[in-house]
Amino acid sequence: MPYSAPLDAIRAIAILAVLIFHISPGALNGGFMGVDVFFVLSGFLITTIILRDLMEDRFSLPEFYLRRIQRLLPNIITMVLTVILLWTLLLPPSMTPQVGSHGLWTIFNGSNFYILKNLGGYWGESAEWAPFTHTWSLGVEEQFYLVFPALLWLLARFQSGRIRQWLAAATCLSFGLCLYGTYTHPTATFYLLPTRVWELLIGSILAAHLQLRAHGAPQSRPAFRASSLEFLGCAGVALVFSSFIFNIKGGVFPGWIALAPTLGTLLILISVLDGKTRLSRLLSLSPLVNIGKISYSIYLWHWPLIILGKILADFYGKPQIYGALAGAILSIPMAWAAYACVEQPLRRRGGGRPRRFAIIVTGFITAMVSCWAVASRHMPPADPANLFDRPTFHGGWFNAGKQDVNASLPARLHDVDFPEMKQPIPDDSWRSGGIVNLYGADHPQIVVLGSSHAEMYSMLIDSICRKLGLSVAFLCMGHSTPAFFESTINPSLPTLREAREFDQARKRWIQKWRPEAVFIIDKWDATVDTPGNFGNRIRSFLEDVCPLAGSVLFVAQAPAIRGGDQVNLREVVTWRRTRGGGMPQFFPDRFDPQRNQATAIAETTSAFFPNFHVLRADQAFCNPDGSIRYFMGRHFFYMDSNHLTDDGTQVVHDLFQDAIAQAHSLSAPG
Questions:
Q1: What's 342's DSSP letter?
Q2: pTM of this prediction?
Q3: Which one of 63, 233, 449, 568 is separated from 408 by 20 to 30 angstroms, measured CA to CA?
């Protein structure tokens, strides 16, 4: 199709928004929606190309796929191989297997499926530190390219007069699925083609309209069209830039919010395509156009280099923003070099094409073998110097919900000891009171509610209750099941009905037992949204529970280690020591303000509920210089970034024992 400079400028705007967001999310809260701009533009361009070829009777499906391979694959292969090399040379061994596995899915256009299964939500800790997370959108686009051309060919052959209507119907269906899924299955909705294809189809509808009109009867334009195009362009720019600027909560995206960048892009396209509006002239400026030409390459290279910079900054005690900036700056010449030396030479058609395909195939096989080799490499000992005892974690013994007995452990936990349970636990043990250990009375006197953080402390609480002769029940569950009664859907509670039944059961058991103490333990930094809302939620919970229990004990969350959710922390300690210096320092991650805020709100709320108390378990892990206390002698306190080992929970043994003993004494007769 004829070259259009404004289209490259639109790409430039989108990639700059994404780049700024990935360097520092707070600098451009909605910058990630630059991807939605890319989606609309991709749908428009690919449909224009296909329909033009179809109407000129020169469309070839094999040729289309060959062009896509030449256009997309060489740069991806180069990026994946470079990332594998950098991670292998510069980072601890436990960080590379997942990169290899993800790299395989990336070169086979399935990155979005891998992320959904293994990394979770786009705003989650795991996805944030994976170097190929950004390729989810390439997976969506390439899956679209895989199925759409054949469908469009069928429409052009058998429904040529109704192409726009069919595309509009598919758009509405996909958008309806997107709206439904955003609030019921938000992670899958974010990553998968059926719930994101409407964004590409919006561009396709415009392309189909223009191509069908261009190959039909001439149409006169109304006199006011020029002024209308100017207005539409301004409206489109306002929509796109407002979506970049405003703060978007990840849990409600895409949904209705995605209409802003997508419809804005559509309006901009309508405005600039004839090249006569002021906006089209503005978007033809060479700086924007030149950035747009290498936007695909920048998109490929910026994210892994930003992540590498942040990881290395963490390892050497520097602010993450320094590493992010360094990675982003380095990504620009890397992207240009890949564009000029790999992408452009290998996408040419004409003479020498078989040789170029041979190079691409060789590179693909090399990348595939390299990824497989890294993914399957044997993990060396995390602590070869034997600095620490092997950490143990008994949390799974106290999970009252579904047990992930077949789940494979991430590489960072490969040497943590997860002792086998003495006997199987039913997946719905919460229906019969949870994990109940009767050490004293014939009903639980201590009850533990919460997520995997509650499981984390459960072995400690259980041992204290056994020592004091107090019966205890554990109604906690993994997968971020909240301590509050909020009926949250997750892998342990896959339906809203089951989530509600779980909360009703917890209330019923507490009402029946009237325990001496109820522990509420959670990953509070993931539950704080706004101070007012969190305060209302905790007060609502306490109004239900405080009249039924002698004491309600809120356990302040221990500090989470920055960058520690993707690495074996003991391995990092050994790795850092071998490169000079003593024991490295670890500092809290960026969610430390949320943890402190949750604790402060809980302490303020305790003034209104006399039997509600805050246990400052966090203070035992904070050093005076702001770093985290993560070991003592041979005892290592952290299993990953935010979960303590059994040795770690022993640090607060006396704090928990005193709280339980006091609650028991207050409940004693007389």
A1: I
A2: 0.80
A3: 449
